[in-house]
Amino acid sequence: MKLNIFPKEEKFFDLFNEQATLVKTICQQFKELLDKWEDGETGSRVESIRHTEDKGDELLHDILVRLARSFVTPIDREDIHLLANNMDDVLDYIQGSAVKLSMFEVKEVRHGIVELASILDECADILIKAMERLPKFEDITDLRRTMRKLETRGDDVNRQAVAELFKAADSVEDVLELIKWKEIIESAENGVDKMEDVLDVLEGVVIKHA
After folding, report:
1. In this structure, what are the phi and psi dihedrals at residue 110, rounded to the nearest 5 degrees?
2. If you write DSSP's letter for every residue of 106-141 in order, what string do you get?
3. C-alpha span between 50 and 47 (Å, rounded)
4. What is residue 174's predicted lDDT score, i.e. its pLDDT?
5. Is the pTM of this model over 0.90?
C-alpha cells in the first residue's frame, strides 16, 4: 500500500464545481433579465446578478487561499489558478453586460444580446459537464468541440449586431446607441470567449494526466 505523507487537496474539484454552478446561475439570471426587461423589475434582477458575482469573488478568494496553503495539489498550481480566474472572469463579464444595460437606461432589448445570452447559457451547461469529468481526467474532446462551435456563433452574433448598429447610425443619437450597445454586446461575447478559455485549460489538464 502506497502511503502519501503529503495528501493532495482534493477540495479544489468541489470548488470548481461550485464556480461552474455560479456561472450557470448568472447565465440564467441574465436570460431572465432580458426576457422580462419591460416588467419593471430590472433593478432587482441586476442586483441579483451582482450578488451572484459577489459570491464568485468570495469563492475565487477561497480557492486562491487554499492554493497558497496547499503543499500538494491534484493538478498543476498554474492550472488551478487559470481555471479559477477564468471562471471568475465569466461572472465579471456577464455582470458587466447586465450593469451596462441598466446604467445606459436601455429602452428596448436587441436581438443580438438575447442570442448571446442563450449561447452563454449553453456554454454554462458544457462547463458543468466538463467539471464533472475533471476528477477522473475523462476526455472532453466532444465538449471542447461543441464549445468551439458556440464561441464561433458568439463571434458571428457580435459582428452582425455591431454591423447593424453601424448601418443604422444616421444621427448623433444613433451613434450614442451604437457606443452603448457595442459595450453591452462585447462584454457578453467576452464571457463566451472566457468559457472557451476554461475548456482549453481543462483539455490541457486531461492531456497531462492521460
Report:
1. -90, 155
2. -SS--HHHHHHHHHHHHHHHHHHHHHHHGGGT---H
3. 5
4. 76
5. yes
Confidence of residue 9 (pLDDT cuts 50, 70, 90): low
Q: Which CATH class is domain 11-208?
A: mainly alpha
CB neighbours of residue 171 within 10 Å: 9
Angle at 98 between CA 94 and CA 100, to 5 degrees: 115
Task: Taking the CA atoms of 137, 139, 141 and 146 in sequence, report the sign of the dihedral they define.
Answer: negative
The single-letter code of the amino acid at 65 is V
Answer whether 112's CB lies under 8 Å from 185's CB. Answer: yes
Cell triple for residue 52? 451572484
Interatomic CA distance for residues 196 and 203, integer angstroms:
10
- What's the full length of the chain, in residues? 210
Q: In the prediction, which pLDDT does 5 show?
A: 44
Q: How confident is the model at residue 175 (pLDDT cuts 50, 70, 90)?
A: confident
Whether the Cβ atoms of residue 127 and residue 195 lie closer than 8 Å to each other: yes
